């Protein structure tokens, strides 16, 4: 993994810590991830990717619907210590967010994983003056490690994959303090920017770096171990070919995207973690909002 560089903690401005603002940035992170184009196998500006029940419009509607619940999570975290009561309240709010998401998407799962990932990070940011990525990931991890004793005992796709393949999934990513976000995706984003890549190529590099290393339960559920290995190797191939934003890298990305579309594989877990990268990057830089990546204006490199 990449090594994250820890910097001296600096208290974030008061207005950046307000629940409504944190929820707004979380929504922006979800929309920015969805709009990033071209993403292999995922919903983007070109279409539905490997999905049959999702579209960019639905992804935007879902993000809008769950924004108020992120604010409630931040407010809950400000009221309570990190304890069982807080964990139960966060779980209840998250389940209400899922209900709101399903209502606006016609029953399609647009952001269930992202509600968990970003919800924890929003809650961590709501109760902390330090918005450095490492600190927020550690705070979120401490919340995730508390069992939610009121959680319905339903078997999810993630549960099936974890039991079948022994991977940690979104729950394990959170309890481990988001290593693929803090140690992989975020350094990759910033390294690409420092190398002079466009914002689109930088965000795509971050996504591909996560895909190359993550045991994505969305991929494992649909494609098994063979599919997961193809996704990892395909993402690594694009990065080795000078990455997004180069002639060779974009050619490899087109081929990779075509392969995932053919096999109906969509790396949704990696997409959720990219949204977390963008959220933490925005807070760490004390920016008021997440800027556009301009992928709607740049040359289209996706599958033909």
Describe this structure in words.
Helices cover 63% and strands 0% of the residues. With 304 residues, it is mostly helical. It has one domain (14-148, 156-284): Triphosphoribosyl-dephospho-CoA protein (Orthogonal Bundle). The longest helix is centred in the first third of the chain and has 24 residues, at 56-79. It is globular and about 50 Å long. The two termini are 33 Å apart.
CATH architecture: Orthogonal Bundle
The stretches of 5 or more residues where confidence is low (pLDDT under 50) are: 1-8, 299-304
CATH topology heading: Triphosphoribosyl-dephospho-CoA protein
What's the total count of β strands? 0
What class, by secondary structure content? Answer: mainly alpha
Strand content: under 5%
Number of domains: 1
Could you describe the largest sheet, including whether it forms a barrel?
Answer: none
**CATH homology group:** Triphosphoribosyl-dephospho-CoA protein
Estimate the mean pLDDT confidence. Answer: 92
The share of residues in helices is 55-70%
Shape category = globular
Oligomer description: single chain
**H/E order of the elements?**
HHHHHHHHHHHH
What is the overall number of helices?
Answer: 12
What can be said about this structure in brief?
By secondary structure, this protein is mostly helical. The protein is built from twelve helices and no strands.
